[in-house]
Amino acid sequence: MNTSITxxxxxxxxxxxGIGLGIAKALAEKGANIVMNGFGDKDQIEKTRQEIAxxxxxxxxxxxxxxxxxxxxxxxxxxxxxxxxxxxxxxxxGIQFVSPVEDFPPEKWDAIIAINMSSSFHTIxxxxxxxxxxxxxxxxxxxxxxxxxxxxxxxxxxTAKHGMVGMTKTIALETAxxxxxxxxxxxxxxxxxxxxxxxxxxxKARGITEDExxxxxxxxxxxxKKFVTTEQLGEIASFLCSDAAQNITxxxxxxxGGWTAA
Length: 262
Known about the structure:
By secondary structure, this protein is an alpha/beta fold. It is built from eight helices and seven strands. The chain folds into two domains: 210 residues, 3-Layer(aba) Sandwich (Rossmann fold), CATH 3.40.50.720; 37 residues, no CATH class. The protein is 47% helix and 13% strand. A seven-stranded parallel β-sheet has the order 3-2-1-4-5-6-7, sandwiched between helices. The radius of gyration is 18 Å and the shape is globular.
């Protein structure tokens, strides 16, 4: 069975760091050209672009603001002009804000819904025509365990992620006969530089050890007591792009150490 994605082009939103970068590296290692997207230091982004290109693929960077539909459309158009087609779309861009709902700033709600959910609608509607024309496509939505269960004080994030699960199912049905699959990966806590910083800050703020933050706060609901890694998510995304996964569509795949099994 052919599982190669060599020569395919993958657009990964929010891929200048963290989960998105891990997936970009995994897909590049398997031969896919990459369209990076995200914010950050210009020199660091270029360094990252070159690092991904070292796998022998072409890498395009777009700084499109995922809250702006016109910039998303322009990003897709630029990528299609360079590579002719976007074969793989990974919707990963996201932000978080924690607050009781009665105190939740409306502008934070709007931003989270825009980036964590609406941006995926805009990327998908832009890439689908050429995916259908080519007769092949893979859409992967990075959703989080919070697309399957809720936590307090995260109303906007949980709402957006639950919405992404519904979007995944709906578009999977719409594209089921077009050789396009649409799936959601739902990770628990993932070890990234951002989370590492949160561990240090939380330990200092609460006057507890970093190990206590990890085991008693972050990993409390993950029964394996292990963080998900970006490398693991990259491999799962790669599998979903393979021919072995051609009949997996509309699925929400928990990668959460048993969190949502309890």
